[in-house]
Write a structure and sequence with these properties.
Blueprint: E1 3-5, H1 13-17, E2 23-26, H2 27-36, H3 49-54, E3 58-60, E4 69-75, E5 79-87, E6 92-101, H4 103-111, E7 115-117
Parallel strand pairs: 2-6
Antiparallel strand pairs: 1-2, 3-4, 3-7, 4-5, 5-6
């Protein structure tokens, strides 16, 4: 099992400002989840997770998820949504999923204030 603690580059002011000090990425489980959930088309972006986290274009929360969660969206050729969830039993955040969202879905998320654009 490959588990990586987020390195110092990712412990950016952005993450600190939203209260995340520990973020865990289990690449093996994430890849399995992505394949099982029909998100295999986004496997090419798994190695870009540090960049997605450190320079997101949009940020928000999924109101359908109980507990602490965060959605980070980065625009490449695809609009990628990185789902971050909180494990309250172990007291850490982890990367739960990575998938693409259509432009119309992103527009809907913006219009409903589910996500907001980050200014650079």
């Amino acid at each position: 099992m490959i588990i990586e603690m987020v390195n110092q580059k990712l412990k950016s002011d952005f993450l600190k400002s939203i209260g995340i000090s520990t973020l865990i990425l289990n690449k093996e489980n994430l890849v399995k989840h992505m394949i099982k959930s029909n998100h295999a088309n986004c496997l090419q972006y798994v190695d870009k997770i540090p960049e997605i986290i450190s320079t997101p274009d949009y940020i928000g929360r999924n109101k359908n998820i109980n507990g602490k969660s965060l959605e980070v969206i980065k625009i490449y050729l695809d609009n990628l949504l990185l789902a971050i969830k909180y494990d309250s039993k172990r007291d850490y955040y982890y990367i739960a999923s990575l998938y693409d969202v259509t432009q119309s879905k992103l527009d809907h998320m913006i219009n409903n204030n589910r996500v907001r654009k980050l200014t650079k």
